[in-house]
Fold this sequence. Notes:
By secondary structure, this protein is an alpha+beta fold. The chain has a single domain (9-203), classed as Aminopeptidase (3-Layer(aba) Sandwich), CATH 3.40.630.30. The protein has helices at residues 31-48, 103-108, 142-158, 171-178, and strands at residues 9-11, 17-22, 55-56, 59-60, 70-76, 79-88, 130-138, 163-168, 184-185, 190-192, 195-203. The strands form 2 sheets. Strands 1, 2, 5, 6, 7, 8, 9, 10 and 11 form a 9-stranded mixed sheet that branches. A two-stranded antiparallel sheet has the order 3-4. Mean pLDDT is 90; it is low at 1-6.
Amino acid sequence: MTMELTQHRFSDASGACHVEIIRCPENLDRWHLVTDYLKIRKQVFVDQMDWPLFHAEDLEFEQYDTFDTIYAVATEHGRVIGGARLRRTDQISGKGRVRYSYMIRDACMGVISGLPAGLCATTPPFREDVWEMTRMVVNGPREVSRLMLRAVNAFLADQGAASVLFLGSPAFARMAKSMDWPVQTLGPIASNKDGSFQVFECPVRAQE
Length: 208
């Protein structure tokens, strides 16, 4: 699989699958792709996996889905088949008494509930050069997940990021290692009724 970068749009060798990096206000004309990504999240996480997540109509979204959030959205022949959410770890959102940073940190600090306790052995970072990638979902071939990870790495390298945090199943580590992407675990495998989760940190690799 090859990848071309044109204004943060990545393509596979066939040209059928693409991953776009979408953010406001630069890409408002592409925001409908984010909406379709939120629909897939609802279909997979709520309808199929029965996770008790907030949703309205056919969209799954939460406090970390804001116009300050950046999205990587995968399409095949123009149809959205997956995506992921990107946030810098020094972002703060919300008003009033409750302020949110990013999912992994807030879960470890007890700001949000619903995730297993003890995800991280130490307090997660609050740094401009560390990002978080969550809510990754792909409703398509396995190769799309690999293309998405390569696209996210290339985008973050362009942003000057040093590393990226992931919250996912233990299987994520096997996929990352198969791509020769070093993985460091930041805590033990933690489980609840929704499954098993682990926090990983991967270095952002410089682009050639």
